[in-house]
Automatic annotation (TrEMBL):
Family affiliation: Belongs to the EamA transporter family.
SUPFAM superfamilies, per the entry: Multidrug resistance efflux transporter EmrE
Domain of life: Bacteria
Domain EamA: 3-130, 144-285
GO cellular component terms attached to this protein's record: membrane
InterPro entries named among the record's database cross-references: EamA_dom, EmrE-like
Protein name according to UniProt: EamA domain-containing protein
Organism (species): Streptomyces tsukubensis (strain DSM 42081 / NBRC 108919 / NRRL 18488 / 9993)
Pfam annotation, one family: EamA
Length: 288
C-alpha cells in the first residue's frame, strides 16, 4: 500500500504544481496560493464536521500548525526562485526536499535493503534530470539558489510534519484542516501587507473576472495539493518513510508530462532519460 499511496501523492502534487503554474501566468502567485487554499479549507471544514473529526483534537495538531506556517513560506520562496530563474535549474532543485523525510526515516531506525537503496539512488537522479536541468546558459543567481533550498526544505518539512500530526484517517482530516487554516491566515496576512504597500494582488488584465473564471482550476489546485499531503501521510504510516518519500517526490516527472501533453512542450533528451530513471527507481523501490 505504501507504493500506491506514495505514487498517488506524486500524481496529485505534479498536477497541482502544473495547475498552479498555469494560474500564476494569470494572477499574482500569492493570490493564487490564498484563493486555492481557501477553497480547500471550506471543503475540509465540511468533511471535519461530517466525520466529527474535531473529537480527535490533541497535542499532535501542533505539527499541523507548524506545517501550516512553513507551507506558504516554502511555496512563495519557490515561486520567487522560479521568477529569478533559470527555471530549468530551480525546478529540479526544488525536489531535493526529499532529503528531509528520508533523513527522518533513517534517524528513526529504518534501514533500506540493497534493492531499495539502488531504487532510491536511481529515482533521485531521475527526478533531478526530469526537470530538465540547464547545464549551460545564464548563471544561476545566488538568491534563486538560496530560495530554492529554502523551498525544498520547507516542502520536505511539511510532508514530515503532516505525517506526524495524526494517527487515524479522521484525525488526518482534522490535521489537514488545521494546516490549511493556518496557511490562509499566513497567506492572508501577506496578501494584506502586499496590498497596503501598493503592489498588485489581482490580475493586471481582468481583475476579479479572471479569478472568477479560474475558480475550477483554483479548486482543483487547492484540493489536489491538500489531498497529496493526506496520501503522503497515509504512505508514511503504512510503510518505510524512506520509500514513501522518494516515490512521492516523483512529482516533477508528472509535471513535465502534463506540460508535454497539455501545452505541447517538447521533452528534451535529458528529461526523457530522467523520467525513465525515475520510473525504474520506483519499480525497484516498490519491488524491494
Amino acid at each position: 500500500m505504501v507504493a500506491l499511496f506514495a505514487l498517488t501523492t506524486a500524481l496529485l502534487m505534479g498536477l497541482a504544481d502544473f495547475g498552479g503554474g498555469l494560474l500564476t501566468r494569470r494572477a499574482p502567485a500569492l493570490t493564487v496560493v490564498f484563493a486555492s487554499q481557501s477553497i480547500a479549507v471550506v471543503v475540509l471544514g465540511v468533511i471535519v464536521v461530517a466525520t466529527s473529526a474535531w473529537q480527535e483534537a490533541g497535542p499532535r495538531l501542533w505539527y499541523a500548525v507548524a506545517a501550516g506556517v512553513i507551507g506558504p513560506v516554502a511555496l512563495l520562496s519557490f515561486y520567487k526562485a522560479l521568477a529569478l530563474g533559470p527555471m530549468g535549474v530551480v525546478s529540479p532543485l526544488g525536489s531535493l526536499g526529499v532529503a528531509v523525510p528520508v533523513a527522518v526515516g533513517l534517524a528513526a531506525g529504518e534501514r533500506p535493503g540493497a534493492v531499495q537503496i539502488a531504487g532510491i539512488g536511481t529515482a533521485v537522479v531521475g527526478i533531478l534530470l526530469a526537470g530538465g536541468p540547464e547545464l549551460r546558459g545564464a548563471p544561476v543567481r545566488r538568491q534563486a539558489v538560496a530560495l530554492t533550498f529554502v523551498a525544498a526544505f520547507g516542502f520536505g518539512a511539511v510532508m514530515t510534519l503532516i505525517a506526524q500530526a495524526s494517527s487515524t484517517v479522521t484525525g488526518l482530516f482534522l490535521a489537514l484542516f488545521v494546516q490549511r487554516t493556518v496557511n490562509i491566515a499566513v497567506g492572508g496576512t501577506a496578501l494584506a501587507v502586499t496590498a497596503r504597500r501598493g503592489r498588485p494582488v489581482l490580475p493586471a488584465d481582468g481583475g476579479l473576472r479572471v479569478l472568477r473564471s479560474s475558480l475550477p482550476l483554483l479548486a482543483f489546485v487547492g484540493l489536489a495539493d491538500v489531498a497529496s499531503n493526506g496520501t503522503y501521510a497515509l504512505a508514511a504510516q503504512t510503510g518505510p518513510v524512506t520509500v514513501a518519500a522518494v516515490l512521492s517526490h516523483l512529482y516533477p516527472v508528472v509535471t513535465v508530462l502534463a506540460a508535454l501533453i497539455v501545452l505541447k512542450e517538447r521533452l528534451r533528451g535529458v528529461q526523457a532519460a530522467g523520467a525513465g530513471l525515475a520510473l525504474a527507481g520506483s519499480v525497484l523501490l516498490a519491488g524491494g
